[in-house]
Each structure stands twice: as structure tokens, then as C-alpha cells.
Request: fold
Amino acid sequence: MVSSTRQVLIKALVVIVSLVSFIGIASADKASRPNFIVIFADDQGYQDLGCFGSPLIKTPNIDKMAAEGMRFTDFYSANSVCTPSRAALLTGCYPPRVGQLRVLFPSSTVGLNPKEINIANMLKSRGYATACVGKWHLGHQKKFLPTSQGFDEYYGIPYSNDMSTAKQIVYSDKCNWREGITRQKVEKAFADPKLKGYRGFKYKVPLMRNTECVEFPADQSTLTKRYTEEAVKFITKNKNNPFFLYLPHTMPHIPLFASEKFKGTSKRGLYGDVIEEIDWCVGQVLKTLKKLGLDDNTLVVYTSDNGPWLIFGKDGGCALPLRDGKFSVYEGGMREPCVMRWPGKIPAGTLCSEVCGTIDMLPTIARLSGGAVKTKEIIDGKDIWPLMSGKKGAVSPHEAYYYYKSNATQLGAIRKGKWKLHLSKTIRKRNKNKKAKKKWTESKTGVELYDLSTDIAESKNVAEDNPKVVKELTKIAKAFDAQLKKNARQPGKI
Reply:
């Protein structure tokens, strides 16, 4: 009897020891997995950082990131406007592949399909805590919001800050109503068929927590400050767990707002104030990582969704030495400033001039968090860890890079090595003669070829001198575009 009891106790002890060991190993594995922070500015120009040559804007924290990490000179967003560029970042796909999402408005009834694999739901499946703090712009209705796309929590505005509110917005019982606006006034506006709810609320956007509006209209002058506080809070709360923080800033998209601490402090005017406050935010995030001992285990990426909105002059950014800006497939529209930092993993003070971009974030983060992306669907992005880690001889994994237009459907250009070809396009203009039989006139433009190794500004068209290059790139571009559209997936719909 005693012997039997002893055997039972010994077996129980073995099970307990094994369980404790397993929990210890699992905890150690969990703690060793890297954290990921992606900071995404809105409409920031290529030159609008000190480390990228800005003569007036001071960005000491991002400059320090570059000194302690890697600066990417040929890093691309996958589109030159908000919604498609964000879809590409999260899904690792060129925009037409994931639903041809154009810029979404408060009246839109589509969004990023929740069935798509994205950085957040991929990491969540691997035990990561996930949060989106800032501008979303991938669908404002509940089924499209971050909390339906793999994020544990969300705090921010659902689309661009120059828009208004939407009929589908759900207001919290504790919503902070501002500027004399009440729930009753909003409901009345949407009930009036003449107003349609939008016209009386220009530049008045909802601030949301998870799926409810907690402030309307949002106090935009404090958004960057409050995003920073939310980011720090999330990092601190998850200091003992692997986490992913997606921090897409509302600024410097117009209208521009800065807090009192930064307003009027930059030599570049209000636009400079805004960028310098975002730089302060980066500094607070890095400071928090160091304070909590997470610095050496966290990859931080800083970049922008597309180029500057040049028509706003001093309130827009600067893409020099690149050509053009937002809405364009010239370099100024899609080549973005990018800095990555991970002490001990990314070599300090280094430069990468290989072609890569936001579509590469998903497969790269998947690899770093424990394996490849598990999906049968086509992903356009590539694992760029060899570039990030400074591996000797590493080159771009992209044989060619494709520039889709702001309508998220048409292929506008292709880059292969040093060559960039702008495809011929049809330009439609409304006929001013009201008596004319045709309302529109159409004209075709010729192709444009640029050697980016010597002409980063795309100023000298060398298509006539290089017919073979034009023919080759045109063939590659058309084949890729046909393949992509054949395998395109549907957006989420209401």
C-alpha cells in the first residue's frame, strides 16, 4: 500500500516538474520573440526628415534612429494615396490584389476584407498583443475596423482628418461632445436628405476607441500627443509579452494641427511643427523601450504612406530631389523616407539603396516572429531581412517593382534595376464646347524611361535611346498586371 502510494506521488511529482519546465520554456520562448513597432506618417515628403536632407525641419529622434540603425533610400509605398497604401502595408500585396480599394470616404460601404492575412492577425495567431493607434482608413464600419482585423485594441480616427462623420458611427454613452455639437444634431443632420449628414461636419471627425466614438469632433490639436500617450501605455502594459504596435499618425495630412508645445516652433511653419511633434512621439516611444528593457528586442520602423500634397504649398511637404508628390507614380509620390532600428540586429549607421517597400513588412515580420506567412493566397512582398541585417552581398529580392496609380487599378510604371518605365496612358479631358458631340476627348501619351542611377528626379526621358529596354519592361509589366488581376481578391462589402 505504501509502495503504491509512493509510486503515485512520484508520478505526480514527475508530471508537475515536467509541467513547470514546459511553462518555463514556453515563457522563455514567448519573452524572446521580438516586438514590432511600425510608425506610419501621412503625406510626408521624402526630404522632410533631418536625416533625409531637410534644411529647416528638426527631427533629432528619427535622426538618432538612423544613426543607431539603417536608412533606406529606395523604399516604396505601394500607392500614392491613403487607403490603398495602408492595405498594401498590412497585407503585403499590391493594392489591386486585395480589392482595388480606392480612397474611402464616410459614405463608403467597402473596406479591407477581414479574411485577408495581415500583420496583426498573423501575429495575434502567434500569441502577440496587437494595437492600432492612429488613422485607420480601411473601412469605418464595424466589420472593417481594426478590432475585426486582428487588433486587440484601437484608438484613433477611422479615416482622413479632412473628412466628416459617417452615418454608421456608433457613439459611446460617455462620448465627449464638443463645439456645441450634440448627438441630436448629428442624428438630425443624417435624417435631412438635403444635408446627407456630411456637409455640416467638414473637418470634424470622430475619435474612436475600439468600435465606438468617444469624442466628436476630435480635438485634432492634441491627436499626436494622445496617440503618443496611448502608444506608451500599450508598450508598458505588454512589457512581458511580445507585441505589435501599429502607429499610423493622422498628420501631416491637411488640415494641419500641432499641440501648444510645438505650435510656432519650427522654421518650416506649421508643417514643420507637425513633423517635429511626430519626431517627439518617436522619441517617447524609444525612451519607453529603453526604460522597460525592451530596446534590444524591438524592431522599430518609421516611414510614410505616400508623398506630400504639393498643391497646399507651405502646408504640404517636400519630396526633393524627387519629382512630383501625392497622387503620382513619379518617385515623389511613392518613394518614402524610411528608417529602421533594432540594436544588435540591424547594424548602426548603415545605408540600404536596394529596392524594397511596405509590401515587404508582412513576410519579413512573419519570418522574424517564427516562420513564413501561412496562406494559400499570393503575397507580393518579400522577406528583406538580409537587407535589414546588413548581410554581405544582399540584393533586392524584387526582380521588378510595380507602381499602381492612385485609383488602385491601373499599372502606371515599373522599375527594374536602374530603369524606370512609365507606361503609355490615355488622358481624358472634358470638352468645353457644350455643342460638341463628344463630352470627352482622349489623347495618348508616349512612354517615359528614366535611368534612376543618374536621374533620380526623372527629368530626362531616354526612351527613344533605349527601345530594347522599353520593349522588355513593357512586356514584363503587362504580364505581371494580367497575372495580378487574374488572381485579384474581393474587398470586404456590407
About this structure: The radius of gyration is 24 Å. Residues 404-493 form a domain with the Arylsulfatase, C-terminal domain fold (CATH 3.30.1120.10). Residues 12-28 have pLDDT under 50 and may be disordered.
